[in-house]
Design a protein that fits this description.
The complex is a heterodimer. By secondary structure, chain A is mainly α. Chain A has 18 helices and no strands. In chain A, helix 3 crosses helix 5 and helix 14 packs across helix 15. In chain B, the strands form two sheets. A six-stranded mixed β-sheet of chain B has the order 6-7-8-3-9-10, sandwiched between helices. A four-stranded antiparallel β-sheet of chain B has the order 2-1-4-5.
């Protein structure tokens, strides 16, 4: 059954919803990348919570006007208007008062959400209410979604995605270096508004699928996941889009097989699974890779210090150092150097002396900048340069007189 | 370099000099809250010269540059660039912000940063082609960073970061280069690389303005100075304006006499 859903064999409506959700996931991932890089990811939380009063008011207005209160385009329009007002409030509070952005976000988020909940309660007491379905906006539900709703979501996702792709260059520029962007004539304020507006669009379009409580996760988790895998903005946006799309696909499919499961949480959990995998396994930035690199570095430090201690006849108390030296066959268990160890130790000491010459001489400045106490000097200097340094140090003097 | 340009003691430059100036600022006032950081400052940058903006910490040096570029919104003041309003002349300006103003863990490579200098040329949708990459590489070549083109910017040392920023400004192919503390916290090799590039810009007839911290190198590196401490203190050639009296007024006696003596200034 789940497999049928994942491979789009669960009927026309479920298929449409899954594709719509995936498209939305892609555009959330790509939009979220720029939001995250601009370090304003949390604003999306204020935006999403600020949709609730709009949804409720739109419902009330439509019912009063005698229309169907559950018309999705109408509800989304209401959501868009009230979240836009919420966004302007956050911007205004941050720019014009001494409130920091986090405080402004907290204030706007809670006030709008509280107001929305009050309105929902009012709706439930309305006789014309038939409010069933509005709760779906909190946690998301694709069960019983109509064909038209799915089309709205798919089209909304696609349009947002196209806009992000078109604006990726100025958005990347503003996210990295807003001052430089401004100096080259980019209207930073307008680009910021565009980033926020796109996040708002994704939020509003995704309300029905993911729900307003969790949509922020669709904007934040995929970019954070993608950051583990790449050091380039364009690739990050792509990977983030793929992660977001995949998570939404799986979430919608699972939810289609078990209609009592809300879609939003499933999507978020799938997204989190991708994040956790990346956190552990990603090359370079993953925890495992970082751990291995740290361990390797630690070994090099201990090895080099052990060799220098051997060369100078100092006792080695650090057990880890001693173990390393013994395993490499450079020292005996009692800390006395083997023949091999003596040779390596002498070389380490000589390198150290050479480095001192290099660092004292302006002519070797660029090489000296690479000194880290670990590097073999041959990796930095040519043989001729080393020979020149050795001449300055002088060769070992004979002992016989 | 005409002498009337040296608006040293309230001498207002003639209309002609103003019209020629790559960057002329009049009555510039910027305040954060109620405290002015820059107050009613006039500045006339001399074309083809290298000018250092000098003053103590918090004296409004960077703010003056940012206000002149429209990055910070001034309370009052006007700016002309090559005698015209700033908006139409942005393509003639290259700007190097302070290195610390950006997040160097940003997911981007050295070459991508330099390509940002071509933003005006590329616009929203034009594809980045071989010719653009070649131009970016040539700029990296000038600052000695070609080998680093594909590195993630977080792997660079402070000096290398500064050189990448300079390469990005070179890619802008401007006539006026504004740099905010280009020598702050860089190694000696980078300092030399940067000053060589700036001097070659000057040789090509470009105008260079840099916020500068190190009083000891002013006379070596620059032709002109602009001394500021919220208000303008002095403006002119190094010989005219970089005097112990002016420095004393700029730093409000915070420079020890010994420090000024070490600068080995020629008394005017």
């Amino acid at each position: 059954m789940l497999w049928d859903a994942l491979t789009l064999q669960l009927g026309y409506n479920a298929t449409l919803v899954t594709i719509g959700a995936a498209l939305l996931g892609v555009s959330a991932g790509v939009t979220g990348t720029f939001l995250y890089l601009r370090k304003r990811a949390l604003v999306s939380d204020a935006i999403s919570h600020a949709t609730l009063p709009g949804v409720a008011l739109a419902f009330i207005v439509m019912v009063v006007l005698g229309a169907d209160g559950r018309s999705l385009p109408g509800l989304l329009l209401g959501a868009a208007v009230s979240s836009w007002i919420g966004l302007l409030c956050v911007n205004w509070l941050t720019a014009r008062t001494r409130l920091a952005e986090d405080a402004a976000i907290g204030a706007v988020l809670s006030v709008f959400f509280g107001f929305g909940i009050v309105l929902l309660t009012v709706i439930q007491t309305m006789t014309a209410g038939r409010a069933a379905g509005l709760e779906g906006f909190l946690l998301g539900s694709t069960a019983g979604m109509l064909f038209n709703d799915a089309v709205v979501i798919a089209v909304g996702g696609a349009v947002t995605l196209a806009l992000v792709v078109a604006l990726r260059r100025p958005m990347g520029l503003v996210a990295f270096d807003p001052e430089f962007a401004a100096s080259s004539g980019v209207n930073v304020r307008r680009i910021d508004l565009a980033i926020m507006g796109l996040a708002l669009a994704v939020t509003v379009v995704g309300l029905k699928v993911v729900g307003l409580v969790l949509i922020v996760a669709m904007l934040i988790i995929p970019p954070v996941t993608a950051r583990f895998w790449t050091d380039r903005t364009d690739k990050m946006a792509m990977i983030s889009g793929i992660c977001g799309g995949a998570a939404a696909w799986v979430g919608a499919a699972v939810s289609a097989t078990a209609p009592s499961l809300p879609t939003g949480p499933i999507i978020v959990l799938t997204s989190f699974a991708l994040f956790a995998l990346s956190l552990l396994l990603a090359p370079n930035r993953g925890l495992l890779a970082v751990g291995v690199r740290h361990r390797r570095f630690q070994r090099r430090v201990h090895m080099r210090q052990g060799l220098l201690a051997l060369a100078q006849g100092q006792p080695i108390f650090e057990r880890f150092t001693l173990t390393l030296l013994r395993r490499a066959g450079l020292a005996h268990a009692d800390g006395v150097a083997t023949d091999d160890g003596k040779a390596r130790a002498a070389k380490a000491l000589r390198d150290e002396t050479r480095w001192q010459v290099v660092r004292a001489d302006q002519a070797f400045e660029s090489a000296a900048a690479l000194y880290d106490g670990l590097r073999d000097i041959e990796t930095v200097l040519t043989n001729d340069q080393i020979a020149e340094i050795d001449r300055r140090i002088g060769s070992p003097k004979g002992v016989a007189t | 370099m005409s002498l009337e340009l040296a608006a040293n003691d309230g001498v207002i430059p003639t209309g002609h000099a103003l019209a020629q100036s790559p960057l002329a600022v009049r009555g510039m006032t910027v305040s954060y809250g109620q405290t002015p950081v820059v107050f009613s400052v006039d500045m006339t940058v001399a074309e083809g010269a290298m000018t250092a903006i000098i003053g103590p910490n918090g004296a409004g040096k960077s703010t003056l540059l940012k206000a002149a570029l429209g990055i910070v919104k001034p309370l009052a003041g006007q700016v002309s660039v090559f005698g015209k309003p700033l908006a139409g002349e942005r393509h003639r300006i290259a700007y190097v912000p302070q290195r610390a103003s950006v997040d160097w863990d940003f997911p981007t490579r050295v070459i991508d940063v330099v390509l940002m200098g071509l933003y005006r040329e590329l616009g929203l949708l034009r594809r980045i082609r071989g010719q653009h990459r070649a131009k970016a590489m040539a700029c990296l070549e000038r600052v000695g960073m070609v080998d680093f083109a594909d590195r993630q910017i977080g792997q660079l040392s402070g000096g290398q970061q500064q050189r990448v920023f300079l390469a990005r400004a070179l890619a802008q192919e401007a006539d006026l280069y504004l740099l905010d503390e280009p020598f702050a916290g860089v190694d000696a090799a980078t300092e030399k690389a940067i000053i060589d590039v700036l001097k070659s810009l000057k040789k090509d007839g470009k105008t260079v303005v840099a916020v500068h911290h190190d009083l000891a190198t002013v006379a070596d590196y620059f032709d002109r100075v602009f001394l500021i401490n919220t208000r303008k203190i002095a403006e002119g050639t190094v010989a005219e304006a970089f005097t112990p009296e002016n420095l004393d007024r700029t730093y409000g006696g915070r420079l020890a006499t010994g420090q000024i003596d070490q600068l080995d200034l020629v008394a005017v």
